[in-house]
Amino acid sequence: MMMLRRIVKLLAICLWLPVTGFFSFFVHIGGWGAIRRVTYCSRMWGRGFVRILSIKVTIAGDPGSFKGGMIVSNHMGYLDILVHGSIFPIRFTPKMDIRHWPILGWYLGISRPLWIDRGSKQKSSDALTQILDTMKHGIPILVYPEGTSTDGESGIKAFKSTPFEAIAQSDYPILPVITYYRPAEAGQTTAWFGDMTLMPHLWRILGYKSINVEVHILPQIKAEGRSRKELAEYVHALMEKEYWNIKNRQQAKAEVRDAALAF
Fold this sequence. Notes:
By secondary structure, the protein is α/β, with parallel strands linked by helices. It contains eight helices and five strands.
């Protein structure tokens, strides 16, 4: 059954990629109007993938209330991109090395992302300008300020302050988002982090009957005179506290459920 599930999902992915790629390719050329249009193609792309992968997304909050600015989330792997893309019409900020991935690099490229090269001060400065321009045109931009993905077991890593420079220099809001995966079956793990390789992890994901993820939308935040470092620390502290509240609540529910089943 698991092998059949994997085959069916792989076939669906092979069909979905060219369909959404076709639409994105023909709308991605041009200026800011094209970038805005392709964010809606990305949302269609994300919604298709979460359905194909049987990802059940539960949203706590109103994503439609956010009209532009910076979305900040904790990061537990590539599934986050699909989940967030299915909820918000966003411009992505992937690391530059993803650009060279076969197939996926090209596919992500036609979504007009803002490629991030942390090894170059000049390119970091250019990225700051592009982030500001993106928000100026009312297009939400998504960042994962931990700088890497984690398993989430130790909370949220300290945020890198660089992405917050764009908010410190402007009056645009930050939308903090907590992303939390609840195991749908015993032993299920979804995080992709550390030295994990992509294909073995994806093969395991394809075998899952379903994946449960909660996206908690927190109140919007503005800089209000804070420096980028102060802002990074403030947002991190707020999100870290809420993350542990969510995690502890879910663990308590799981313990009650397990006790009831044992009884």
